[in-house]
Amino acid sequence: MRIRATVAAVSGALALSALAVPAATAADEPSAPNLSPFVANAPSAAGASDTKVTKVVVNGGKDIVVGTTKTKFVKVAVTLTDPDGIKDSIGFLWHGSDFETKIDGAITPPDGVQDADCVKADETTSTCTIEIIANPKDNIYGNVLAGKWKVAVGAVDGQDNEFFVENFQSHSVKRAAKLTTNASPEPVKKGKTLTVTGALTRANWDTSKYAGYTKQDVKLQYKKKGTSSYTTLKTVKSDTKGNLKTTVTASADGYYRYVFAGTSTTPAVTSTSDFVDVQ
Q1: CA angle 251, 253, 255 (to 5 degrees)
Q2: Are the C-beta atoms of residues 253 and 224 closer than 8 Å to each other?
Q3: Domain 177-276 has CATH 1.10.3470.10
Q4: How far is CA 86 from the centre of its chain?
Q5: Which value, to the nearest 10 degrees, does the dihedral of the CA atoms of residues 134, 147, 7, 113 take?
């Protein structure tokens, strides 16, 4: 399958190119390697088959969130139909300005090669599932890759005709985030000032460490003991190191937590709550 050969070439080339990308400074994103020689022979979208893609679901419809150490294994389910049936399929993600001229990221099956698990709905329609990997020590090599990726889909019909779409839809790949909350003093007297601190950090794919997410709005929420829902007390902006700090007046026993809504490059995250005994 020529599509698989292309994916394997892209995957292997990116693994090598990522090693050559220097760690970025605060003002310098890693430069994107030009992989056009590896994708010049990719099949065109207008193939000989009558295959149609009706649905693609990446990671169960959820964003792909990658930290600094763990490989993420992601399922791509592609539903296709063709008068001659579907023999095989592949789905993968790529990042860049143009598939044939400049790709700077690819999330593919291991080595770009893997048989899809295809389940027939009938003689013409199948849903094929394939596993792709996002590895912060390999193909997720820099912060420049956070955000929207393009989803490519390929298939082989029952007559061995190939079908390929470079950009069927987009999908988000985000930098994992962490959020903490600490309220003090504990216990505290009713009516006294309570200081609530915390920190918002996210994965830095340039350095393979977590760093403060600065100048972000984070909500401080409170739930009175014995109740079931949280109320937002105020919005706090993270400082130049991602730290959070504010004060409230202690009124009753309850739980405090910080909540971050997320951005286009970073997922929403809620801290573990901190219980405060008010005396």
Answers
A1: 105
A2: yes
A3: no
A4: 29
A5: 20
Pairing of strands 217-224, 52-58: unpaired
Token duo for residue 175: 């930098």
- Give per-residue pLDDT as tens, 149-176: 999 999 999 999 999 999 999 999 999 9
Distance CA 207, CA 210 (A): 8
The one-letter amino acid code at 119 reads: V
Look up the CATH architecture of domain 2-174: Distorted Sandwich (2.70)
Cα 215 from Cα 20, distance rounded (Å): 31
Task: Select from 52, 61, 53, 14 the least CA-distant residue to 171.
Answer: 61
Q: Where are the domains of the chain?
A: 2-174, 177-276
H-only helix segments in 130-264: none
Contact 169, 180 (CB under 8 A): no
The total number of residues shown for the chain amounts to 279
Q: Which of 44-48, 57-61, 206-210 has the lowest mean pLDDT?
A: 44-48
Residue 271: name the closest of 221, 224, 215, 216 by CA. 221
Read off the tokens for 220: 């401080």
Tokens read off for 221: 């929420």
> What is d(CA 108, CA 123) in angstroms, rounded to the nearest whole number?
28
Nearest to 142 by CA among 12, 28, 9, 272: 28
- Topology alike, domains 2-174 and 177-276: no
- Return d(Cα 9, Cα 3) in angstroms, integer: 10
pLDDT per position as a tens digit, 104-114: 999 999 876 67
